[in-house]
Specification:
This protein is α+β, with helices and mostly antiparallel strands and about 200 residues long. It has two domains: about 110 residues, no CATH class; about 55 residues, CRO Repressor, CATH 3.30.240. About 65% of the residues lie in helices and about 10% in strands. The protein has a four-stranded antiparallel β-sheet. The longest helix is centred in the last third of the chain and has 26 residues.
């Protein structure tokens, strides 16, 4: 049985005649470059995966480009060469960007401020096609019960949210203010009692 697997199915999986080796390497490199450019153009929203539609786009995108990467070669060797080419090009790009920060900033883009000094930046939300309810969802994921508890929120180029809470939080500030007022009223009552 193992001889059959080696002679028949396994050899077919490993080395099905298909694309030339150079094309198996070049296809993933071209698809990689195209995806980097497309994700840069269409914004950080897809990377942040804010709703099911964004996730569906990313999953469909990977399925869509599969044939572009490996072509008609469904062999194991063809898939491994394509995967290796993707990993190598990513490694080379990451190392290059690490050494050239200015180019990295140009290609990666700039952060978008969504909340500044506790105020929602409507322009930033519009630029990233985000709604206030999606921003509220992000706040909840980060442990904030209300947007009002956030001092600053920035959508980073990689799709992550950097959030700074108010210090102290709004509820704590209100609590302290109420305690101070109650204390003041208690003092006034004591003074009125003494004055009688």
């Amino acid at each position: 049985m193992s001889a059959f697997l080696w002679d028949g199915t396994l050899s077919h999986l490993l080395a099905q005649p298909g694309l030339p080796l150079a094309e198996k390497i070049l296809r993933p490199v071209i698809v990689y470059a195209a995806l980097v450019v497309l994700l840069r153009v269409f914004g950080k929203r897809e990377l942040a995966q804010l709703n099911p539609f964004d996730l569906v786009v990313l999953l469909s995108l990977s399925n869509t480009v599969q044939n572009a990467i490996i072509g008609e070669d469904n062999s194991l060797a063809g898939g491994l060469v394509g995967a290796l080419a993707l990993l190598l090009i990513n490694y080379a790009v990451v190392r290059f960007m690490f050494k050239h920060r200015r180019i990295d900033q140009l290609l990666e883009g700039t952060p978008t401020t969504l909340i500044e000094r506790g105020e929602i930046c409507r322009d930033g939300l519009a630029r990233e096609l985000l709604t206030v309810s999606e921003l509220q969802t992000v706040a909840h994921r980060q442990g904030f019960s209300n947007i009002e508890d956030i001092e600053r929120c920035v959508l980073e180029p990689g799709g992550s949210f950097a959030i700074e809470g108010r210090t102290p939080p709004r509820d704590e500030t209100r609590h302290l203010e109420l305690l101070a007022r109650i204390e003041g009223l208690s003092r006034q009552i004591e003074e009125l009692k003494k004055g009688k």
